[in-house]
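Fold this complex.
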Amino acid sequence: GENVEQHPSTLSVQEGDSAVIKCTYSDSASNYFPWYKQELGKRPQLIIDIRSNVGEKKDQRIAVTLNKTAKHFSLHITETQPEDSAVYFCAAGGNAGNMLTFGGGTRLMVKP
Amino acid sequence: GAVVSQHPSRVICKSGTSVKIECRSLDFQATTMFWYRQFPKQSLMLMATSNEGSKATYEQGVEKDKFLINHASLTLSTLTVTSAHPEDSSFYICSAPSLGQGLDTQYFGPGTRLTVL
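Structure:
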């Protein structure tokens, strides 16, 4: 089955700096890679996703890159703000309708 | 985006009782729904895939007789934790994929926090 590794487990940055979270996956058949933001006690919220036919996708301050050859994908948050503080999860799946395997999560702390 | 609801949001029960959790897709149909469990400060672990009109598919290590899943309609899946014990205390979250019409992704319910005394 799929195995997703996520690093770092915790990340502390100063407000305005950039944050990068990296994930690797094992199953070459995976072609859907969403990123979720989860605040304490709440549901994971989709913030951006990418499919295997795309190498990079950007949405305002958030961008995701995908390297299928190396089986890794990354989340980039620029100009971080305190409200970006949360736990971020990467995931991998066959497509959006299939089960997702989640990474271990990254606790991001943005210091004002 | 699509909306998935879950009920109840929080439940406290005594050891040995059964608890039913409902997951509904409010504005789309879902032939498949997924049930996850999340322990404090840990990731989401897939428990089972709920299939409308057929048996659920359970992940390795998840007891199907303890975690009963019923997907009776295209908008409702239920998870029943039978004979709950303190070690079953966790955050249970369902998700449903919304496919097509530009909503090709998975959406999560708000979760149910189960505490077994």
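The two ends of chain A are 41 Å apart (CA to CA).
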